[in-house]
Amino acid sequence: MEVVRRVAPHLDAEAETRKIELREAAATNMAAMPGAVELVNSIPKGRWCVVTSGTRFLATTRMGRFGIPIPQILVTAEDVKKGKPDPEPYRRGAELLGVIPAECIVVEDAPAGIRAGHAAGMRVISLPSTCPVEELREADAIVAGLPMIKVSLDGTGGEGPLLLTLR
């Protein structure tokens, strides 16, 4: 809605945003990012969340279409006052997870998200999907794709720290 207000202030931002959202939700030229389902299924429930600049409707529609589990915690554009690159969305995610930001790792594919994660005090892993590698250099690590990220328990059960390995 912020973008519509900025680029087309003469339009009804709410109505135009809804049209865009419905069109995006109905898009059939998309596929799940390889490794997404496997990655989130490797992390215990309640230990991960999705932070998106999109709406709850769009996020849940897309995740459902591609078989990606809907997380217990989902932070969307409707849940924050300021979007990425502001750190508010990621700070809200950490708060809802009940962890300090320094214990979080963000997986991002855009410079605004990388900046938001860092501004929130989190480490960021990035992968080129929407942006080329050259634009992602601010990340702490860059991987070729989600299958390169492995998450496992540290041996103390679901409540202990998670171990993250990059290939």
- The tally of helices reads 6
Strand order of the biggest β-sheet: 3-4-5
What name is given to the CATH topology of the largest domain? Rossmann fold
CATH class term of the largest domain: Alpha Beta
Radius of gyration based on Cα positions: 16 Å
Number of strands: 7
The SSE order reads HHHEHEHEHEEEE
- What is the name of the CATH superfamily of the largest domain? HAD superfamily/HAD-like
Q: Indicate the overall shape.
A: globular
Mean pLDDT: 92
How many domains, as an integer? 2
Helix content: 25-40%
Description:
The chain has 167 residues and is α/β, with parallel strands linked by helices. The protein folds into 2 domains: 1-30; 32-166, HAD superfamily/HAD-like (Rossmann fold, 3-Layer(aba) Sandwich). The chain has helices at residues 2-7, 13-26, 36-41, 56-65, 88-97, 111-119; strands at residues 49-51, 73-75, 105-108, 123-126, 141-142, 149-153, 162-166. The strands form 3 sheets. It has a 3-stranded parallel sheet with strand order 3-4-5, with helices on one face. A two-stranded parallel sheet has the order 1-2. Strands 6-7 form a two-stranded antiparallel sheet. A hairpin with an 8-residue loop joins strand 6 (149-153) and strand 7 (162-166). Helix 2 (13-26) runs parallel beside helix 4. It is globular. The protein starts with a helix and ends with a strand.
